[in-house]
Specification:
About 55% of the residues lie in helices and about 10% in strands. By secondary structure, it is α+β, with helices and mostly antiparallel strands. Strands 1, 2, 7, 8 and 9 form a five-stranded antiparallel sheet that branches. A four-stranded antiparallel sheet has the order 4-5-3-6. The chain has a two-stranded antiparallel sheet with strand order 10-11.
Length: about 675
Amino acid sequence: MIASMRAYRMLVFHRDRGALLRVLKQQGVVHIKRLKREEDDTFQALRRRKLEHKRMVNDFQRRLPDVEGLPDAPDPGLLDAQTQALAYEPSRLPELLERLEELDARMEEWEEDLFEYRHIGNYDAGKLAALAERGVHVHLFSAPVGRVDPDWGSPKPKPIQNTEAAVPNQRADEPTGRAQAPERAASKPAEAAAFVLEPLFDAGRKTWFATFGRSPKRPSIPAQAEAFPDRSVPELEAMLERAKAARAALQRALHEQQTAYEAWLERQRLLQEDAVQVHRADVQAVPLGFGKVILLQGWVPAAKAGALEAALDAEGYYYEQAAVKPEDAPPVLLRNGGFGKLFEPIAELFALPQYAELDLTPFFAPFFLAFFGLCLGDGGYGLLVFLVLLALGPRIPARYKGLWKLALMLEAGAALLGVLSGTFFGINLHDAPWPWLDAIRPGMLQPDQLFNLSLALGAIQIAFGLILQAINRYRQYSLAHAIAPIGWLVLLTALGLGYAQGFNLPLTIAAWTGVALVLFFSAPDSGIGGRIGQGIWALYGITGFFGDLLSYIRLFALGLAGSILGFVVNDIAASILPVHNVFGPIFFVLMLLVGHSLNLFICTLGAFVHPMRLTFVEFYKNAGFAGGGEAYAPLQHLVESDEEPDTGSTEASELSGTPPDGAESRTEAPSGPSPAGAFPTQHNT
């Protein structure tokens, strides 16, 4: 069922808005009415902060070391002051995670440098600088092995020009300077080499070498220019050791203070949620009287209205009750007890009903339980999972106890219906040679009986859905709107009985009566022409009912498929057993475990998905379910805080009653006493 709501309108002076919202948060029962969208810049900023917090939680969980992988306690002498300050202080978790990210990046860089320059060894960068001051410049290169040419550092002789080509009109015996120029060039001493190339070592597929020359400019040769490392190999190793020690210390802090860090993260999440709900409430406030008065509207469950009124009276706030109208779309709070409450999580997977609708949760719950057991199809599977869940009961967190109870109930029903269908861990109980089963074998269903049972359950649920649709329409509209579903129920019942036992006069009259009711009452608010037109179109949809009925065959098919797969697993395992005296039993057990585990997973998945399909498609459609209700989400006190949550906006700061420095109020407050007494303390209508 759906909890009854009461509508409230509250008026407050604009400066007292934060105080009013704090009172409402303490009560935790008022669902603020949504009048406009809250997708503004402030809301987007809050959403970004929530996403950042979620990423931080994921990063924290990713970096938590397990007990086996917990690093040894590092030497305290290797830890710097920053690392010692970050460890064991939950409020500095973001800095700790950022420090770990930084350490990982640096360690990766240093390990690459160490791998790259491990052959260089313990060189002194200061000596290279001293050589450069004296005019000797050293440059580092690498090239593929076998591609280094020693002549890259040798001088290249200039080509000798043809004198005849150079001076074509000159005689050969003419003693001029031009004729003797080549001789002088040949007798000139060779130029000094531009640089000297010195091979160093081979690393992988590369040859590393250095050049020594007078020019500070790097030589232009076909090789890869490399840079000397800033630090030597021993220095890199020492830095890596300190970085590993810092990371180990921070990881040990994460492990040893995991509970404290998780509590801090949960607190931050609640603060973010609190900031979001406060901002949403602020956006829905309506300014009146040039912004001096704020109107806030909301809904409260009728059972909690008295406590809210007492709190508002104690603080002297003006409020009034208003009539709850379905067109105002009040929020939906499901109030089912016992058996029906367990199935509320399944109902919420699809959609909540509208406020004026029937809550279908307690009506589909028995069908869902039966559908799950028939689809699982094996009593052994249901019993096994039931026992496992029962053993895990003490370890289930309190917030998941409802789901745990639902799973227990579904598996218990599956165990009973599996035995009823005659299958237990792939064993056919109908033919099992166990005398103690003779007492219950008559109650077991054969495959053809399971087929008929599936169709019968489908017909019952469809008929039940039509009855609920009639009740729902009567509650929401009028009696005339409830006649068409009754007409369909009469028509389909007459057709079903006529098909089973043959049509007689009463069944024929009933069928035509159902046709008339559907024809004239499918659109009761229209004229006679509209009624007939809508009625003809509605009658055309009779084929949909037959399609819906056939959909329930899946209950039989899935259960039979799971049973057959269990039989196959047992047959394969039995054929393996006599193969070998030693390995035969081993692989026999492995085949049973692996085969039945896979079959159990497939059957459980199908047993959950297909009953949901029958519920949300066939049953909801025939029950006339509209859905689309807004979940009841009251403004509530989420976390104790010495300071209000930082929402990053002036608006949210105003809600907390502490405007940020330098920020002005949205509206100028008038002078004079507080207007709390300017209105009546209470006004109920």
